[in-house]
């Protein structure tokens, strides 16, 4: 455990004597009742089997931040990074600020923030690999980077920027509450390093000496109802009614006259000019998710429609099944689904650890989505394979695999939607997400079947109408969701308003191009449904217009989300500066704290160097080191 110096100053020592029984959210502060046989267990810090003698070891601890005292010296950041040996682009604790007013009545409010070790840690429930644990000791939420496979879902669901996804190593790490120091009676490193006594630490709800407030919110701090964070504030100085962020986020915090609290509102700092920004839109970090969701939804839609048509005995389905295009269609579905899964897996920081995605079926919607989609792919694969054979037994197996595929589609599709209903990302937390996903499945799935039937020469008038109507319902459902979503975004009092602003300005022309393409798709589908086989060639035109609208729409879905986050500074924790640094080469300067997203290239180059320059025994040892963890 952490060695204690003989001359350790008093301000670095834990000194709680009494505590309350419950916190303000009604949660017991005592994490294990006296007499519990599990109270006397070791944390095995650095394989040390000793047990700390802290009398409050089994009470929920938390940070205390006095905003009146913080001078933004960043000593807490430096101490934390030094203790945890973090690279320049990773910081478990960050200091941001908001500002308001004008000269000479200008105000700046600094906020130092790390993990809040919440009562209801959404990172723990969301992580598919079970890399997180809520410990009874001190109530610490700890994370093991060696278990993490780098999906980054915890960074999506956390409202406070606590989990840090390393773009180089491809894994997440975070504040560990310095439990090794707590075990020997010391406060965390960041608290001990604070120059102005702005940071303090102890049993939650205990107000440090010389302080008289223990608020749960200050301007710039995100909503607390999501996770019930274990941090308390003092901020006595009266602030301006509006406090702006200095990072690129188009959010400000407005004081409610009825209640002494600040709510996020739109800050249109970039003007109202409508732009394309297609390069940023289509060059998103989330391109793998675009490919996976679109391919999975298209294949699921086509598979479900094909099975329902066959089981209903429709003549068009029988004609397609007996045509030369049937098996190529099935192989196309198989290849498209496999490609989507491959792209998603390679998006992970540690793709070779993909199997860990099944570890948290109890809590994580990501694990459940992975299980459902895997079951669907298994069902699809079996259905395709046994379609190569004829006979009663092969048909029975086809049916069994078809049922497995449908069950997997329902489970995987539902949790594909549920994993995006994230309160910390209000742009996604809307029913339009379900409408978009279901609509894409209907529209793209119908299009795949229509093109296959057209290629096989069996696209009858009846089939054209049915598939056009099915696709039209998909387009209408997506359009209805988008209209309701846009209305709710515009009138919201949250980060969703900033998403609407970005949608209308920075990506305004791309957004309207997608909307126009949706109308074109609908018009073409209505034409086909009325004209029948005479207009079946329009499905070829639809392939291009529907693909373009789907790709643009899904890219907007990912790029427009503005999460509930802590404010940054001009250079630090500023998304706009990070993009600028990567585009201009400033990211090559490690002191700026920006790294390129190249963990896959990093591992590949390391692998190639190993193969070229070492002996066989050294190769094996190096390969084991590269792919360990």
Question: How would you describe this structure to a colleague?
Answer:
With 629 residues, the chain is α+β, with helices and mostly antiparallel strands. The chain has 3 domains: 229 residues, 2-Layer Sandwich (Alpha-Beta Plaits), CATH 3.30.70.20; 187 residues, no CATH class; 32 residues. It contains 19 helices and 12 strands. The strands form 4 sheets. Strands 3-2-10-11-12 form a 5-stranded antiparallel sheet. The longest helix is centred in the last third of the chain and has 30 residues. The radius of gyration is 28 Å and the shape is globular. The protein starts with 60 loop residues before the first strand and ends with a helix. About 1% of the residues have low confidence.
How many E-type strands? 12
**Remind me, CATH topology of the largest domain?**
Alpha-Beta Plaits
Spatially, the strands of the biggest sheet line up as 3-2-10-11-12
Shape: globular
Low-confidence runs: 599-607
SS-derived structural category: alpha+beta
State the CATH class of the largest domain.
Alpha Beta
* Overall pLDDT level: 90
Instruction: State the end-to-end CA separation.
Output: 23 Å
CATH architecture of the largest domain: 2-Layer Sandwich
Rounded Rg: 28 Å
What amount of the residues lies in strands?
Answer: 5-15%
**Sheet having the most strands:** 5 strands, antiparallel
Tally of DSSP helical segments: 19
User: What proportion of the residues is helical, as a percent range?
Assistant: 40-55%
In total, how many domains does the architecture comprise? 3
């Amino acid at each position: 455990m952490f060695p204690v110096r003989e001359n350790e100053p008093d301000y670095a020592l834990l000194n709680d004597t009494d505590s309350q029984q419950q916190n303000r959210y009604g949660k017991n502060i005592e994490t294990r009742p006296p007499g519990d046989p599990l109270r006397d267990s070791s944390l095995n810090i650095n394989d040390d089997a000793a047990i700390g003698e802290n009398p409050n070891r089994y009470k929920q601890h938390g940070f205390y931040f006095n905003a009146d005292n913080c001078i933004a010296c960043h000593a807490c950041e430096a101490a934390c990074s030094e203790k945890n040996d973090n690279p320049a682009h990773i910081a478990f604790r960050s200091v941001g600020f908001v500002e308001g007013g004008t000269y000479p009545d200008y105000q700046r409010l600094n906020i130092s923030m790390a993990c809040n070790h919440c009562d209801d840690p959404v990172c723990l429930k969301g992580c598919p690999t079970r890399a997180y644990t809520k410990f009874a000791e001190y109530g610490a939420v700890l994370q093991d980077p060696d278990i993490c496979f780098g999906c980054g879902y915890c960074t999506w669901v956390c409202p406070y920027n606590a989990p840090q996804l390393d773009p180089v190593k491809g894994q997440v790490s975070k504040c560990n509450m310095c439990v090794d120091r707590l075990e020997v009676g010391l406060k965390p490193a960041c608290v001990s390093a604070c120059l102005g006594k702005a940071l303090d630490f102890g049993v939650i709800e205990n107000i440090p000496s010389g302080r008289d407030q223990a608020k749960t919110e200050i301007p710039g701090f995100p909503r607390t109802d999501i996770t019930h964070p274990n941090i308390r504030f003092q901020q006595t100085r009266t602030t301006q009614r509006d406090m702006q962020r200095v990072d690129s986020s188009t959010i400000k915090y407005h004081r409610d006259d009825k209640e002494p609290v600040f709510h996020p509102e739109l800050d249109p700092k970039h003007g109202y000019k409508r732009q394309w920004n297609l390069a940023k839109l289509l060059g998103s970090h989330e391109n793998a998710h675009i490919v996976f969701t679109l391919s999975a939804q298209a294949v699921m839609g086509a598979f479900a429609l094909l099975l329902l048509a066959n089981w209903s005995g429709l003549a068009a389905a029988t004609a397609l099944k007996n045509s030369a295009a049937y098996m190529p269609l099935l192989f196309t579905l198989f290849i498209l689904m496999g490609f989507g899964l491959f792209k998603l897996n390679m998006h992970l920081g540690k793709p070779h650890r993909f199997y860990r995605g099944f570890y948290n079926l109890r809590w994580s919607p990501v694990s459940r989505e992975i299980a459902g989609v895997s079951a669907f792919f298994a069902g699809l694969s079996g259905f395709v394979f046994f379609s190569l054979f004829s006979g009663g037994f092969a048909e029975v197996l086809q049916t069994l695999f078809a049922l497995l595929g449908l069950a997997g589609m329902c489970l995987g599709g539902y949790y594909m939607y549920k994993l995006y209903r994230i309160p910390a990302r209000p742009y996604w937390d809307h029913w339009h997400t379900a409408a978009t996903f279901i609509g894409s499945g209907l529209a793209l799935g119908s299009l795949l079947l229509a093109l296959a039937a057209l290629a096989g020469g069996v696209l009858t008038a009846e089939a054209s109408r049915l598939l056009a109507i099915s696709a039209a319902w998909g387009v209408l459902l997506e359009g209805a969701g988008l209209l309701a979503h846009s209305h709710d975004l515009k009138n919201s009092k949250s980060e969703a308003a900033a998403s609407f602003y970005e949608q209308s300005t920075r990506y305004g022309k791309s957004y309207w191009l997608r909307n126009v393409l949706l109308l074109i798709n609908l018009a073409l589908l209505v034409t086909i449904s009325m004209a029948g086989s005479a207009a079946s060639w329009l499905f070829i035109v639809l392939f291009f217009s529907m693909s373009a609208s789907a790709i643009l729409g899904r890219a907007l879905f990912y790029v427009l989300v503005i999460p509930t986050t802590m404010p940054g500074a001009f250079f630090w924790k500023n998304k706009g500066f990070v993009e600028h640094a990567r585009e201009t080469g400033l990211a090559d300067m490690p002191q700026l704290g920006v790294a390129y997203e190249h963990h896959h290239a990093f591992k590949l180059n390391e692998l190639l160097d190993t193969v070229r320059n070492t002996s066989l025994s050294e190769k094996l040892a190096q390969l084991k080191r590269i792919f360990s963890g």
